[in-house]
Here is the input.
Amino acid sequence: MNVWLLALQEIRVGLRNRWVVATTLVLGALSLSLALLGSAPTGEVKADSLAIIVVSLASLSIFLLPLIALLLSYDAIVGEQERGTLVLLLSYPVARWQVVLGKGLGHTAILAFATIVGYGSAGVALWLRGDADAGSIGAFAAMVLTSIMLGASFVAMGCLASTVVRERATAAGLAVGAWLFFVLVYDTAVLGLLVADQGRTIGEQGLNVLLLLNPTDVYRLFNMTATESTSIYSGMAGPGDAAALPLPLFFAALAAWILVPLALAVIAFRRRPV
Here is the structure.
């Protein structure tokens, strides 16, 4: 019960600070611009518009959703402490794990609402135009679900950063560092490692493990290879593609990227002096 009350409180704060409206407008504008103005690639070849939108949105979401999630959550704990409200919050009959979980759940709910409404608007627009079939609708729904899971994983990272530092500025620095590492640096480092290795040590299985160690790569691989149409439009179809990995493994990896940082945040918060 306490977890839900804390989550509702975070949602109210998000509404008061216009986070819900701003995030929904950003995601909605992004998806609608791709849906209504990005039909050129379909041309005369009768390409599946919704599948192209899935590939395009998945590519852009990798950059946008983690950043929004970290901005929502980086000061979840340390911000309360700097405002002097953390001691008051803990004076109530609420456990520390409930505080972390409630805040994470509230921020994830804000992001989930914005993602469903923002991205759903593009799906509805294409459906009304008759540019969607059952397969592409399924891929679009899976993209929305995994987008929420990707955002939740970075919300969890933001909560973790907020519990291990003493100042909001430091937490913000950690959040930016996490975004840069997972979104920009990690893949470049993996590519450099593969070039240096020249296939001597890191084989296909090793590469799969490396990719699963980054939630953005898990998200990208799932949405680029979930269906035949998205594999074709993303250029990832063909022999030796990443679709050889079972799709449930991608969901399990994203779930782990949510649960592990949250668990570490709970442990860190329990040891944190107030």
Notes: The chain has one domain: 2-270. The chain is about 80% helix and 0% strand. Residues 40-46, 237-241 have pLDDT under 50 and may be disordered.
